[in-house]
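== Sequence entry ==
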Amino acid sequence: MNPTDRADELRRLLNEHSYRYYVLNEPLITDAEYDVLYRELVTLESDHAALITPDSPTQRAGSDLNENFEKIAHPAPILSLGNGFSSEDLIAWEERNRRLLPSDTPLDYVLEPKLDGLTIVITYERGILTKAATRGNGVIGDDVTANIRTIRTIPLRIPVKSGLEAPDRLVVRGEVLFLKHDFEALNERQKAAGLPLYVNARNTASGSLKQKDSRITASRPLTAYIYDVVDIVGFTLSTQAEMLDYLQSMGFYIPPESQHYPTLSHIIQQLPTWEQRRQQLDYEIDGVVIKVNDLRISAELGIVGKDPRSAIAYKFPAQEASTRIIGVTHNVGRTGKLTPTAQLEPVFVGGVTVVNATLHNYDFINHLDIRLGDIVTVKRSGDVIPYVIGPMIGARTGAETPILPPERCPHCDTPIVKPEGAVDYFCPNSQCPERVFRSIEFFASRGAMDIEGLGPQTVKTLLDQGLIRDEGDIFYLYQHAERLLGLEKFAQKKVDNLLQSIEKAKTRPLAQLLASLGIEGVGSTVSEQLADHFETIDALMNASVETIDALEGIGEILAQNVVQWLSDPYHQAVIAKLRAAGVQMQGATRSIASDKLNGLTFVLTGTLPTLSRDQASDLIKSHGGKISGSVSKKTDYVLVGDSPGSKAEKAAQLGVKIISEAELYQLLA
């Protein structure tokens, strides 16, 4: 196909996909696939300037305007950025800029994370926030002033620090998003309320900011980072680095990890590190932004099309792709919960070929109307299990069929149940072969009883051979040493190491045992509470729902889960086997340093300066204090470190005292 025809086809495709994305909300391709088409058109138009037309997608920015909001005109165009996908692209970008500048012009740069959120533009008059808008079409945006005021990281008055003066007028640009831990906390609240879970953090942030009722926005833990000055009166800035420092001094959150580099080659050396760190960051990024540091040079370079020449977005390899659902399996977990999994036409995403992806739960499927045969968007982030984001409804042919939960368990044929008010479906049979396998696998795992050598495949082999039937049987495997040696891949050393690890597991603390049993909702914090209060597993087994519910941070539903699990005859038989085998059933006697914290309940959140979470818990308990996993009016103190989660916000709402590690030591002084 000649360049003219290909450019015409690309313009038609890109315009159609933009219409489906922005107007119909029915995309047929992923953002990454759109970028590939867009980049091809940019290359064609760069090589053949005569091909550029007024209606080309390269000549305009996208739009997120909503007819339900009043409109605000921006004081200057809110431009998008050109993209680079390799170090060669970045070098070519710098070379193009150098050709437009005197040969002796020095170029240094600022690198910022490319935050994956919703762009906002905020105006301050004499230090007071007066209006805020979305990016819109780059010229006008939706008025979201009332909603922006609810975001706590956005100051209502600047400067926040005393001793500084606000400019007569300041217009800033930034990004609204969910931090990862806040998004998880939001979904925990959804789950507790029996509501569908949110899947895409960026879309949820956008929806949260565009609520007509600002009280809904206020209930969402949004964060805003500010990274650009669009307009300023009464103050002069010279460099991008100076701009970020100035914004921070005014009281804004600026993009974390932003850094100045003397040359582009220094930045290129850092790109692999950024890609590796991507998953460890507490915010979503899809690349990094590189900006010419000198603002005078930036202005001199000007704009090409809709992109400033002085900045470029280096985009990481795509983590999303589209493919077709060709089947669905219904997996049963250790608690009996059913999780639907999509079987996919193989697709390469996030560095691997993906053939399966989770569909979360059946409410999620129903809410998004995902069907068998649908073309869907799949995402994979690092080591996270690939998951389906949603269907491309516009690609349907009519042959797609609904995905429904099974009526009977696919492993034991027991009728499936859905408890009243619950989101999930369950197999209620505690002796379901799949539930037993998953329970034993969890019991032996590193985060539970930590039995080395007893991984999923080994557990399956032992079950298939009839050597174990439940968790208790693990501690009697020494009686079958000869049979173990007869199994494939079971050499003498492997058998000896396995039996030694099993013997060592008998001495695990009671709290660790309780957390390993797989009781719904009983993790490390709750298990420690139960072990500390009841001291023996027998006392816990004799406790009523009311007694357990009375403990700080343990509600009625969790108390019912504990009592129901421990009263099941099958589980009681497992505990009897563990006791007979000599597994620790009694809490260790804790050394008490003092009673200075006696009767006080603490909740921990964030990363402390010198203490790990376990060390802080042990310190508090050794002085008579108690640890709870959730904040309530009964909580006395919330111990807060860096990057605290929603627990700190809830403490502030309830008026619970928030303390630092230093203040904890003051309590003990």
